[in-house]
Amino acid sequence: MCGTDACLIKCSPVPSATTETRENGTRDTLMNINLDHGDPTMYESYWKKMGNKCDITFSGYESLSYFANGKSLCWFLESKLEEEIKRLHNVVGNAIVDDYYIIVGTGSSQLLQAALYALSPTDEPQPISVVSAAPFYSSYPEVTDFVRSGLYKWAGDAKQFDKDRPYIEFITSPNNPDGVIREPVVNGDQGILIHDLAYYWPQYTAITSPASYDVMLFTVSKCTGHAGSRIGWALARDKEVARKMTKFMEISTIGVSKEAQLRAAKILGVLSDSCLDPTLDNFFEYSQSIMTQRWQKLREIVKANDLFTLQKYPLQYCLFTRDFYESHPAFAWLMCKGSEEDCEKLLKGHKIQTRSGRKFGSDPRYVRISMLNRDEDFNIFLQRLMAIQGLTNGN
Question: Which residue, 166, 203, 321, 391, has most beta carbons within 10 Å?
Fold first, then answer.
């Protein structure tokens, strides 16, 4: 009911592979397990435990204006979201927010394009080259070249870039797909850097210092698991860069949904509360525990055979947990050893859908596997991986 009463919305659950049933009512465990996308349904269990703490309602007369009430340079940024973003970074200690401009976007994908637009020179005779070290995030080439901009153009692996001219380098840290902490690769003095820090949160890696780069990108989807809300944010040090990024948002979507922003603000607030209030279940400790258990199980299975290998990570001291911590990334970068040359094809034959290393500018012997699915799907994945090993050992 709308009007003076609140507008309430009931969301439909997203089915997992284990919720599909055959005609006789039994579960179909032979369905494909889709681990291609980083769909963070793993976090459902935590937010269910939180009950109605994240509930938010909207009256029919609210959020009619294009404009937000705050005084931010990003004129459509809700002041409550800005407040909770700053609070969360201060609680976690993973980024400096003082003297930075915050730009909200429809996920970090839109912010990537906004950053490219804002940072590309307009007086060059040819588009500026955009690079990232392989294995790089598989969407970077498509995001860069999709609109065929005359300002910028994808130029591939940063390790191979040797041109004496301006360039933009994407630095994803921890890296997607392999979870490695990254630094700039191109050794040039004309580089413009964009730091994609979507996974720089305590459940995935140790927080070793607060990031303070010129342009930093974050997203709710990998921080809290609320990918469907499509909220991301950028921290920009330079006012003109922030202004241009805001202009890109204005032209492309005339801002970002207020309902999504306010829901994200509520969720971030509860997340911060969970870190400070000992009566609440700490979100990052809860999530870190799940990620640690999943990685331990996967490593045990891989160690027990001679068919696969996994990326290894060093112990690092985490300023947030105040303990030494080994990274447990959102994705497993799995390699097939021996004569197997197409790991994606091998796993697909056993109903496990992954993303080939080719998509990341790397070797097809590698695949990226999401570690963020529901427990049911993840457990079936482990069972099928063990079955592959059994078949191989049997041969």
Answer: 203
